[in-house]
C-alpha cells in the first residue's frame, strides 16, 4: 500500500489576514530601508538632537497667533542629502573651536571710522569697487557704522560678550511674528546667543499682546530670543534697509562671535544651530552656506522678477543698478562658475566669521545702501569679483525647506496704533526693463544668458 503524498502549507498561510499583514510588514521595512539608506535622492535629516527639549520654549497668548499662515512645501527629495552628526559631537567641536581660536576676521580686515550723513557712508561706484580687491596691506574697508547704531549700552555690552555662535533675526514695522526655534538640544539655549532686533512699532505690538514688560528698560526676552530695540529714526527711512544691518553686519555687532546664523523673521528654525553649522559649514570647509534660489540662476532673472512683481518701487533705479554691475564685470551664470547658481534664497545664511566672509558682508552692504535692500541682486556681483574669494556652499532648496518652516508676513496690525509704512507707488521705467538692442550696458550679459553670441 502506497503512502498518500500530502503538502502542508505554512501555518501563517491558513489565515489570509495574517499572511497579508506579514507581507505588508516586510514591504514597509524594505521601503523604509530603501528611502533611508539606498535612495540617493532623499534628503535625510536628524530632526532633533539626541536629547531635544520637548517642552515649549515660550507660551504665547492665543491672540498673538505665531503659527498662523504657514506656507506649504512640495519637495520631498533632493540631489544633495545632508547628514547631521551627533549633537554632542557637534556641540563639543564648535565650542572648543570658539574658545580656543582667535577672532578669525581681525588679522587682515580693518574698518574705516568716521561720521557721515548715512549709516553706510554713501560711497561712489568707483570707490566701492576699489575695495573689492583686498590684499594684506591693511587698507581699511567701508563697512557701515558711520552713524551710531542706536541700541542701548546694556545690549551692546551683551552683544560683545557673545563669543561662540549667534543666531540673529529682525522685525521692523511689526511685519512678522516672533517664532521659537524647534529641535534644540539641551545645552543650546545656554550656549547659543539668540538676538531679535525690533523697532518701536514691533515693540508696541509685543507689549500689546503682553509678551514683554512695558516697564523694563534693560533686558527683554521672548522665549530664547533676546529683544533688542533699535531706534530707527536714527537710521534709514526704509524698514527693510534697517533689517539689512544685523543681517549683513553681524560680525560688527557681535565682534567676538565665531559663527552666526541669520534667519528671516518669516522663518521658524526646526533644526539645532550646532547641527546646521557643523553639517553645512564645518564639514563642508566653507566660509558661508546659503540656499540657492528655487527658480532663478541668473542675476538678471531676479532683477526682472523684482521689477515685474513690484518687489521694489523704482524700476529705473533697478535698471541703473544692473547696468552698473554689467559695466563693472558681472557675467551671467554658466557651468564654468564654481557655484550652482548666481541667485540665493537669503532667508537663512550661515557664516564662519572669516576674513573673506566679513569682507563679502561689508561689500554687499555698501551695494545695498547705494541701490536698494534687495540683497539677491548684488550677491553674484560681489561674490565673483571680490578678492580674496569666499568659499561658499550653495545648498539645495529642498535642504532649506527641511531645516525651517516659512510663514506669511503679518496680514494686519492687531491692536497696534501705528500703521505700517505704506510702500511707495511703483515707478514706471522710462522704457522696457533692459531690452536687448537698446544700447544697454547689459546687452552682452543678455546675449550670453540667452545662449546667443555676439557678432
List the helices and strands and how they pair.
Blueprint lengths: L15 H23 L48 H14 L9 E2 L13 H6 L9 E2 L11 H8 L4 E7 L16 H4 E7 L1 H9 L11 E3 L2 E5 L9 H10 L1 H4 L5 E5 L3 E3 L3 H10 L5 E5 L6 H10 L6 H13 L16 E9 L2 H16 L8 H7 L6 E4 L1 H7 E3 L36 H7 L6
Parallel strand pairs: 1-2, 3-4, 3-7, 4-6, 9-11
Antiparallel strand pairs: 5-6, 7-10, 8-12, 9-10
Helix pairs in contact: 7-12, 10-11
State the main characteristics:
33% helix; two-stranded parallel sheet; 15 helices; disordered N terminus; single chain; alpha/beta; 12% strand; 455 residues; 8-stranded mixed beta sheet
Oligomeric state of shown chains = single chain
Kindly estimate the percentage of residues that lie in beta strands according to DSSP.
5-15%
Structural class: alpha/beta
Question: What's the main sheet like?
Answer: 8 strands, mixed
Q: What does the radius of gyration come to?
A: 26 Å
The residue fraction in helices comes out at 25-40%
Amino acid at each position: 500500500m502506497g503512502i498518500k503524498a500530502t503538502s502542508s502549507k505554512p501555518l501563517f498561510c491558513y489565515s489570509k489576514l495574517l499572511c497579508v499583514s506579514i507581507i505588508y510588514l516586510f514591504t514597509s521595512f524594505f521601503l523604509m530601508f530603501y528611502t533611508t539608506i539606498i535612495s540617493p535622492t532623499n534628503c535625510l535629516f536628524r530632526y532633533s538632537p539626541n536629547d531635544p527639549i520637548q517642552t515649549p520654549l515660550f507660551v504665547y497668548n492665543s491672540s498673538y497667533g505665531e503659527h498662523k499662515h504657514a506656507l506649504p512645501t512640495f519637495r520631498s527629495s533632493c540631489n544633495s542629502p545632508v547628514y547631521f552628526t551627533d549633537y554632542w559631537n557637534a556641540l563639543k567641536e564648535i565650542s572648543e573651536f570658539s574658545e580656543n581660536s582667535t577672532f578669525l576676521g581681525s588679522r587682515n580686515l580693518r574698518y574705516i571710522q568716521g561720521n557721515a550723513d548715512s549709516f553706510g557712508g554713501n560711497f561712489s561706484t568707483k570707490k566701492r569697487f576699489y575695495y573689492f580687491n583686498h590684499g594684506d596691506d591693511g587698507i581699511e574697508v567701508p563697512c557701515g557704522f558711520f552713524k551710531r547704531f542706536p541700541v542701548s549700552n546694556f545690549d551692546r555690552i551683551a552683544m560683545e560678550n557673545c563669543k561662540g555662535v549667534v543666531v540673529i533675526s529682525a522685525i521692523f514695522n511689526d511685519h512678522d511674528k516672533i517664532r521659537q526655534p524647534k529641535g534644540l538640544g539641551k545645552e543650546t539655549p545656554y550656549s547659543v546667543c539668540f538676538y531679535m532686533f525690533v523697532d518701536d512699532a514691533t515693540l508696541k505690538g509685543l507689549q500689546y499682546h503682553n509678551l514683554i514688560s512695558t516697564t523694563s528698560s534693560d533686558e527683554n526676552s521672548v522665549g530664547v530670543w533676546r529683544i533688542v530695540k533699535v531706534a530707527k529714526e536714527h537710521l534709514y527711512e526704509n524698514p527693510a534697509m534697517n533689517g539689512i544691518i544685523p543681517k549683513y553686519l553681524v560680525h560688527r555687532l557681535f565682534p567676538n562671535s565665531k559663527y552666526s546664523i541669520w534667519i528671516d523673521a518669516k522663518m521658524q528654525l526646526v533644526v539645532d544651530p550646532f547641527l546646521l553649522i557643523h553639517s553645512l559649514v564645518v564639514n563642508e570647509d566653507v566660509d558661508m552656506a546659503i540656499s540657492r534660489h528655487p527658480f532663478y540662476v541668473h542675476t538678471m532673472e531676479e532683477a526682472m522678477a523684482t521689477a515685474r512683481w513690484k518687489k521694489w518701487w523704482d524700476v529705473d533705479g533697478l535698471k541703473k543698478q544692473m547696468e552698473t554691475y554689467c559695466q563693472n564685470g558681472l557675467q551671467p551664470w554658466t557651468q564654468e562658475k564654481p557655484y550652482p547658481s548666481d541667485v540665493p534664497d537669503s532667508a537663512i545664511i550661515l557664516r564662519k566669521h572669516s576674513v573673506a566672509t566679513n569682507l563679502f558682508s561689508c561689500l554687499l552692504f555698501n551695494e545695498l545702501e547705494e541701490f536698494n535692500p534687495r540683497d539677491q541682486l548684488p550677491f553674484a556681483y560681489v561674490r565673483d569679483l571680490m578678492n580674496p574669494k569666499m568659499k561658499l556652499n550653495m545648498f539645495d532648496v529642498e535642504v532649506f525647506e527641511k531645516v525651517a518652516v516659512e510663514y506669511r508676513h503679518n496680514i494686519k496690525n492687531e491692536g497696534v496704533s501705528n500703521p505700517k509704512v505704506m510702500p511707495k507707488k511703483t515707478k514706471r521705467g522710462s522704457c522696457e526693463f533692459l531690452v536687448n538692442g537698446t544700447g544697454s550696458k547689459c546687452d552682452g550679459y543678455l546675449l550670453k544668458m540667452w545662449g546667443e553670441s555676439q557678432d
